[in-house]
UniProtKB/TrEMBL annotation:
<dbReference type="GO" id="GO:0004069">
    <property type="term" value="F:L-aspartate:2-oxoglutarate aminotransferase activity"/>
</dbReference>
<comment type="subunit">
    <text>Homodimer.</text>
</comment>
<dbReference type="Pfam" id="PF00155">
    <property type="entry name" value="Aminotran_1_2"/>
</dbReference>
<comment type="similarity">
    <text>Belongs to the class-I pyridoxal-phosphate-dependent aminotransferase family.</text>
</comment>
<feature type="domain" description="Aminotransferase class I/classII large">
    <location>
        <begin position="27"/>
        <end position="390"/>
    </location>
</feature>
<dbReference type="InterPro" id="IPR015421">
    <property type="entry name" value="PyrdxlP-dep_Trfase_major"/>
</dbReference>
<dbReference type="GO" id="GO:0006520">
    <property type="term" value="P:amino acid metabolic process"/>
</dbReference>
<dbReference type="GO" id="GO:0030170">
    <property type="term" value="F:pyridoxal phosphate binding"/>
</dbReference>
<dbReference type="InterPro" id="IPR015422">
    <property type="entry name" value="PyrdxlP-dep_Trfase_small"/>
</dbReference>
<dbReference type="GO" id="GO:0042802">
    <property type="term" value="F:identical protein binding"/>
</dbReference>
<dbReference type="InterPro" id="IPR004839">
    <property type="entry name" value="Aminotransferase_I/II_large"/>
</dbReference>
<dbReference type="InterPro" id="IPR015424">
    <property type="entry name" value="PyrdxlP-dep_Trfase"/>
</dbReference>
<protein>
    <submittedName>
        <fullName>Aspartate aminotransferase</fullName>
        <ecNumber>2.6.1.1</ecNumber>
    </submittedName>
</protein>
<keyword id="KW-0808">Transferase</keyword>
<keyword id="KW-0032">Aminotransferase</keyword>
<keyword id="KW-0663">Pyridoxal phosphate</keyword>
<dbReference type="InterPro" id="IPR000796">
    <property type="entry name" value="Asp_trans"/>
</dbReference>
């Protein structure tokens, strides 16, 4: 039976990590997968996480199953972090999920089962797993333009015109709350207000992917999109991930927050989300959620976390600035200053597929095919090798 099964295509991002590992060149540089790295190129465990784990080691009394929806304290604090007082807690149906991906999958299942015929609109470009997750859940996907023709800014009018012309009442629009993956280009507050207005006027549901909370400008600032959406929408969904901002990648911590228009709707939606959880993984893993709840529930650990998060954000910002300066000093003739408007871990460098291939084969520099660079992979010690190689790649 199995011998006739064809090989699946590798994940376009994770596949590159395997190729990087297999590369024997000592000076190789990995700017592919979106994982934070410090100045030494490491992805360390945050101090606040270590402290929370020490507390948990002493205080946890059971490894018994959690409820289907997860740890109540985690859910309360996760809602508060993402939504603050923008909506009353009684109108939020929340489930703890294995990472942001788990939140997206539970959302996809919920849409497939309960909003039949709704399609999910994703940006072009977007994180490639968006389409896979929704399609696997049985939801059709459509795409809206996001990038201007010169690939340097947001094509707001293209986005709004497409959604207005081709979107249907009941369709869902997937938006990146901040630090858009892969472009690093986010709407301004005014643009968010326009997006919120168009979606409200067309009866479309915002589904906000919040995978980089705190990596853009700050915890409050990065909520600007959710704030503007909440002014014009009684109903929307948020998929939060704690992989990046708590460095808890492998612990798989996320939350799906469904904002409903009434308390009763929230109760019903919650029962449907739990239905999806039950048939997917029964109930979420405890440890990562317990870590996040311990940190957010302690004023001391929370402020330590905010400092550590600010340090990650600051390092990325500094590397982006130094990269732009470094490219300018190569006199390569390309102005990279547009990267300074981008936010978060990723930058769309403008490098084309041929240049990306050349960098990988000739210099051991790994970049996603779209030209997306993980800025957090740049360090003071690899910066000059990188800028020289890119200058060369763009001149051949
Ligand atoms: N959404 C976006 C835009 C992402 O970049 C990621 C990255 O991994 C995720 C969701 C999924 O996050 P997680 O690793 O928590 O599943
Ligand atoms: O875009 C990224 O690099 C991150 C990590 O299937 C990631 O979001 C990449 C691919 C994937 C899962 C996570």
């Amino acid at each position: 039976m199995f011998e006739s099964i064809a090989l699946a295509a590798p994940d376009p991002i994770l596949g590159l990590t395997d190729a990087f590992r297999a590369d024997a060149r000592p000076e190789k540089i990995n700017l592919t997968i979106g994982v934070y790295r410090d100045a030494e190129g490491q992805t360390p465990i945050l101090e606040c996480v270590k402290a929370a784990e020490r507390l948990l080691l002493e205080s946890e009394k059971t490894k018994g199953y959690l409820g289907i929806e997860g740890l109540p304290e985690f859910l309360r604090l996760a809602s508060d972090l993402a939504l603050g007082d923008l909506v009353p807690a009684s109108r939020v149906a929340a489930v703890q999920t294995p990472g942001g991906t788990g939140a997206l999958k539970v959302a996809g299942d919920f849409l497939a089962a309960n909003l039949r015929g709704s399609r999910v609109w994703t940006s072009t470009p977007t994180w490639p797993n968006h389409t896979s997750v929704f399609e696997t859940a049985g939801v059709a996907t459509e795409s809206y333009p996001y990038l201007s023709a010169d690939r340097k800014s947001l094509d707001l009018s293209g986005m709004l015109e497409t959604l207005e012309r081709d979107g249907r009442i009941g369709d869902v629009v997937c938006l990146h709350a901040c630090c858009h993956n892969p472009t690093g280009i986010d709407p301004t507050r005014q643009q968010w207000a326009e997006i919120a207005e168009l979606l409200a006027s067309r009866g479309m549901l915002p589904l906000i992917d919040f995978a980089y909370h705190g990596f853009g400008e700050g915890l409050l600032e990065d909520r600007v999109g959710i704030q503007e959406i909440s002014k014009q929408h009684q109903e929307f969904m948020v998929c939060s991930s704690y992989s990046k901002n708590f460095g808890l990648y492998s612990e798989r911590v996320g939350a799906l927050l469904s904002v409903c228009s009434t308390d009763q709707a929230a109760t019903h939606v919650s029962s449907r989300l739990k239905q999806s959880v039950r048939s997917n993984y029964s109930n979420p893993p405890r440890h990562g959620g317990a870590i996040v709840a311990t940190i957010l529930g302690s004023s001391e650990l929370r402020s330590q976390w905010e400092q550590e998060l600010a340090a990650m954000r600051g390092r990325i910002h500094e590397m982006r600035t130094r990269f732009v300066e470094g490219m300018a000093s190569t006199n390569c003739g390309v102005d990279y200053s547009f990267l300074l408007d981008q936010r978060g871990m990723f930058s769309f460098s403008g490098l084309n597929a041929m240049q990306v291939d050349w960098l990988r084969s000739e210099r051991g520099i790994y970049i996603v095919g779209s030209g997306r660079i993980n800025v957090a992979g740049i360090t003071p010690s690899n910066l000059s090798i990188l800028t020289a190689a890119i200058a060369e790649a763009t001149s051949v």
